[in-house]
Amino acid sequence: MYRWKRFILFFSLISFFSLFAEELPNGYKDIILGMNLEETKDALVKDPDFGYHGDRDVSLLPGGTRELIETDARTGHGSNFLEQCYFQFFMDELYIITININPQRMDYYSIFTKLTEKYGQPDSFDPNSASWKNDDVTMSLERPLTLKYIDNEIYKNTQNYNNVPLSPTERTKEMFLDEL
User: Which of 47, 49, 61, 122 could pair covalently with 79 via S-S, beta carbons 3.0-4.6 A apart?
Assistant: First the structure.
């Protein structure tokens, strides 16, 4: 019976805090979704927590319109709480920030509790992840310990973007359908 009361109290407190929920952040620290590649690199250089080492951390992804910055804070130059971080760009706009958090320094429950206090109940929740969403941003906490910020509009555009030309069969099919 005592466990049941603690469970009810816990979710009552979370519900109470969600009445005062803050707006979802559009990034982490000074790294904001929508920044271009150069702005992001400048912000990473100024913040040693990420373990950014310069242009050698930047790579082009297939398709020519996508770039990735991968940082490693475990090298001793970054935060004790961060491990690897990924910053994904589409058409020179930052649209996904992925932060892997050191599980020896932090735990899933602590982050989940803090995010729930700040931003209210998650919009989706399962044993492996929780996510909060508004029109602009999706923030997700994933097991084992990854925090993601996603620009919803740019992400949607990446799903609709296809850099691969149609095959002759696909073009013929499209031409047929256009004639209908």
Answer: 49
Q: What is the DSSP letter of 74?
A: G
Alpha-carbon span 52 to 68, nearest angstrom: 12
Q: What is the pLDDT of residues 44-56, one digit of tens each?
A: 999 999 988 888 7
- Cα separation, 176 vs 171, in Å, equals 9
Report the C-alpha gap between 171 and 164 in whole angstroms. 12
Q: Give the bridge partners for 128, in sequence order.
A: none
- Please answer whether residues 131 and 123 qualify as being in contact, where contact means their C-beta atoms are separated by less than 8 angstroms: yes
Reported confidence tier of residue 165, pLDDT bands at 50, 70, 90: low
Dist. CA 43–CA 71, nearest whole Å:
13
The two structure tokens encoding residue 142: 């994933």
CA 129 centroid distance within chain? 12
